[in-house]
Amino acid sequence: MVVAAHPLATEAGVEMLEAGGTAVDAAIAIQAVLTLVEPQSSGIGGGAFMLHYDSASASVQAYDGRETAPAAIETDHFLTDAGTPMDFLDAVPGGQAVGVPGALRMLEMAHQAHGELPWETLFQPAIRLAAGGFVVTPRLAEMLRIDLPLDAFEPMAGYFFPDGEPVSAGEALTNPELAATFTQIADQGADAFYEGPIADSIVTAVQAHGGTLTREDMAAYEAVERTPICRPIADHAVCGMPLPSSGGMTVLQILRLLEIASTEVNDPSALTWAHLLLEASRLGFADRNEYLGDADFVDVPVETLLSEPYLTGRAQLISPTQSMGQARPGLDDPDSAMSGAKPINHSTSHFSVRDAQGNAVSMTTSIEMPFGSRLMVGGFVLNNQLTDFRFDPAAADGRPHPNRVQPGKRPLSSMSPVIALDADDKPRLIIGSPGGTRIIGYVAQRVADVLMRGEDVQAAIQAGNRVNRNGKTQVEADTDAEALAPGLRALGHAVEVESMTSGLHGIERLPSGAIRGAADPRREGVVGRER
């Protein structure tokens, strides 16, 4: 089964499964097609995090394809001449926010360990579609019309804005440059991207627009296999990505805090359940914003923050009848000060895959903002992921912030792919979402609903989003979540009602062994199954 954000990407994944491929084989084909048909969200010009379940060993692996900062970058990279942080939207366009793309090297690493089909086979669906054309979807057309300077950069302007107007839904679009790029990668492997003419094109484009990326930065990039973080939640082992993704740790904190707090309430109502989840999220985000960064560069108290004594103590702060308001981080001697989440909707994509052998992939992939840095080379869009660093390298108390910019460092992420294993160590739930820092809330809500409340994955995904990032409580307009707003206000929440475009894609394994998939109706994804 494949659940991805575009029907053509889903079809490519199913094609690989039907050819005898593994979940990783399907993932590579899916990412290649998403690069073409969903260029506003992800692609080989960006980065990704992948969780993989290996059925032979009944174990989960974590693959880190997060972008890295160039070697020449300075800690004041995102400060103005006056020493103040740049405006976020001023930092996005151009080369200054482009990190070394990591998705392709990560996929190559995973394929070497878990692939079955030949590497070149995996790019054929994307090559066919790029050369022969695909139909522009309403979402892509809509994103081209948002208030961003997309038509100020070539070749993006010529590709998406022929005759000065953005392409419209229903039009056919070809991308021969991307077809050529994928043909090189298919024939020569990821080295063609990191060390050949493609790398030269990336470096030239970035440096021409104010960035410091070099050929040496590209050639030196390494994907990393890391140890996933797994914790017992509701009689399951819930596994997430370790740092530099904050998603795994924070989702696990929220789920365990919710589990502890809910034991104090008999049969909580929908309102009480939502309130407890939101309060747990406040506590999780307080720690996330204070302590987390790339653990290869800074010391992060991971084990303490996920320890049972710590979380049990933090859960005592949750009242079923009154909101705590803004939560403080939980350690006695913090090393830095709070860094608030950016109020910008990021553009990302998530897909879930399960193959016939029971292997599984949960992968979240991103170029950060819609259309990333606005720079396009070889038919694909380059990321602006360096804006995920904290712009001010110093915390409020003057100490270095753990998510400050440093050469070679990976910026903190909120991507939260999850694989939850049942008592037989088989995947019970494979899920994730796009959505910037809201990803954590989107994913935690659904894992809790499925594993703790017994909801089916489609009903859980369709339910209204409820998010708290240690500030105002945000509920999704025109959903059952909005109906909870008056009750949440009565409990002390400052509530905002707004649209929330999650993109949750999940696969659930039932006790019978049957599987069912669910695609988020807020986007264009579909479920596909090997025939």
Explain what the structure shows.
- The chain is α+β, with helices and mostly antiparallel strands.
- The protein has two domains: 2-226 and 348-388, no CATH class; 229-342 and 413-512, Gamma-glutamyltranspeptidase, large (L) subunit, C-terminal domain (Serum Albumin, Chain A, Domain 1, Orthogonal Bundle), CATH 1.10.246.130.
- Helices cover 34% and strands 17% of the residues.
- The protein is built from 19 helices and 20 strands.
- It has helices at 7-18, 23-37, 88-91, 103-114, 124-132, 138-143, 156-160, 176-188, 191-194, 197-208, 215-220, 246-262, 270-291, 302-305, 308-315, 439-451, 457-462, 480-483, 485-490, and strands at residues 2-4, 47-54, 59-65, 134-135, 172-173, 224-226, 229-233, 236-240, 347-354, 360-368, 376-377, 380-381, 418-421, 427-431, 466-468, 473-476, 495-498, 505-509, 515-519, 526-528.
- The strands form five sheets. It has a seven-stranded antiparallel sheet, covered by helices on one side. It has a six-stranded antiparallel sheet with strand order 7-8-13-14-18-19. The protein has a three-stranded mixed sheet with strand order 15-16-17.
- Strand 9 (347-354) and strand 10 (360-368) form a beta hairpin.
- Helix 2 (23-37) runs parallel beside helix 5 (124-132) and helix 5 packs antiparallel against helix 8 (176-188).
- The longest helix has 22 residues, at 270-291.
- The chain is globular.
